[in-house]
């Protein structure tokens, strides 16, 4: 009997693509992981034991056909592997780069539980689709037969773009509105290049443009049009605007120059990465070179800020977090990367005041200790009396997370219903908001989440909008956009 090419997890040890040396990568914004070579991808894919009930797929929000494309990769049938992985995802190479695999597919691989180390699913996924782009296997977006119906999508992040792709393929005229001058949402202006190089996002956007999706950029819904105007123009509308209201710190001196918001800082850096002249870099207000930088927060955004500051040539970079390492929300992989690059973590610490008159000069901190679990089950941090100290800082970046903006007020429609957290209230079956024909998807419905969940929502909402549009067409209500 021929040898089974799979199930090699005992003979072959787990290996991820090589990382560039920390010294090297601190000098630029290029991705830190190199790509798999074909032989290595095949070898690693062959570690999969082809489970009958693949927990990796169950725990992938897109339910990707992981064991099948791993097998095809091992067999050298890369084009088929790509087609299969593309069948359930609009951006497999992006998910392969930035999904927190340790909490999703890889964290639930049975081989991980058996102590051999998970199959390196994300890296193989990235390899397959990057190869498809290189080989020209990624097909243009083919619009379906025209339906005569028009859809408006507010927000060009992963949720909006995924919905746009499927609705265009179904033959609708698709208009995407975004307040930024480039599409991609947080893929473009939030996540730094060392995790996701911008060409990877831009080639996806170009494919959508080439497929006839019409982008209206620098178009701020609420200022440039009301929701009522867009409803007039389109047969159905999707709100996929993400969450952008930065949480603040309540402490004296927080308004001092030099205390800045994480997303302003990351957006400026990403703009510079596109080759733009960024005034806030020129005047130093959002630039870390030569400064003592303190980032407050322990999530992915904080990790992105500390590592950006290292690349900008900061004198020192500290991350202040009120819980300990085991209880931080950010990915452990990113913490390890940050430490390698020279970031110092100050665990169990919180700011109580910002010092300096003209500009911030230091952060007064208190040590924290973990008390009894709170409502979420996590141990609540509380100040440790008598443990105050001052850390020098001339740039402080607040990275405490995001809440939704006040959409009913912003969009000029009080009938748009939101939850007590400000997220859009949608019917879970139809994904429709309180306004007829207006749907919601992505972070604005879930609260701050992940790219892969935004993609999943985008695909699901496209399906629900399709059903709505079909019913509308049958009822004779077709409206063609101006
Ligand atoms: P977004 O990506 O936020 O896109 C929303 C779009 O709507 C934006 O382009 C915005 O300009 C536009 N918009 C908003 N309001 C209006 C308006 N009024 N008019 C017109 N346009 C509007 N997730 C991961 O999986 N892995 C990671 O490594 C990761 N890193 C992250 C790093 C940072 C710094 C941040 C902030 C988030 C990170 N995330 C990560 C989370 C992830 O980026 C989001 O969950 C995801 O982008 C949400 O997609 P979305 O389409 O719902 O919204
Ligand atoms: Fe894993 Fe994310 Fe890819 Fe799913 S989309 S297989 S969770 S990397
Ligand atoms: Fe393969 Fe792991 Fe998925 Fe099982 S859980 S099918 S071994 S990748």
Specify the helix fraction band: 25-40%
CATH architecture field of the largest domain: 3-Layer(bba) Sandwich
Rg calc: 23 Å
Give me the side-by-side strand order of the main sheet. Answer: 3-2-1-4-16
Oligomer: single chain
Q: What is the 3D shape?
A: globular
The DSSP helix count reads: 19
How is the CATH topology of the largest domain named?
FAD/NAD(P)-binding domain
Briefly, what CATH class of the largest domain? Alpha Beta
The set of bound ligands, ions and cofactors reads:
flavin-adenine dinucleotide, iron/sulfur cluster
- What is the CATH superfamily label of the largest domain? FAD/NAD(P)-binding domain
- How many domains? The number is 3
Output mean pLDDT.
94
Low-confidence spans? none
How far the N terminus sits from the C terminus, by CA atoms, comes to: 65 Å
**Biggest β-sheet, characterized?**
5 strands, parallel
- Into which percentage range does the β-strand content fall? 5-15%
Structural class: alpha/beta
Strands, count = 16
Blueprint (SSEs and pairs):
Layout: H1 22-25, H2 38-45, H3 55-58, H4 66-74, H5 78-87, H6 92-98, H7 110-113, H8 121-135, E1 150-154, H9 158-169, E2 173-177, H10 186-189, H11 198-210, E3 214-216, H12 227-233, E4 236-239, E5 245-246, E6 259-261, H13 262-273, H14 279-282, E7 292-296, H15 300-311, E8 316-320, H16 332-341, E9 344-346, E10 349-355, E11 362-373, E12 379-383, E13 389-392, E14 395-398, E15 402-403, H17 407-410, E16 438-440, H18 443-446, H19 451-474
Parallel strand pairs: 1-2, 1-4, 2-3, 4-16, 6-14, 7-8, 7-14, 8-9
Antiparallel strand pairs: 5-15, 10-11, 11-12, 11-13
Helix pairs in contact: 2-4, 2-8, 4-5, 4-8, 5-8, 6-8, 9-19, 13-15, 15-16
The structure holds flavin-adenine dinucleotide and iron/sulfur cluster (2 copies).
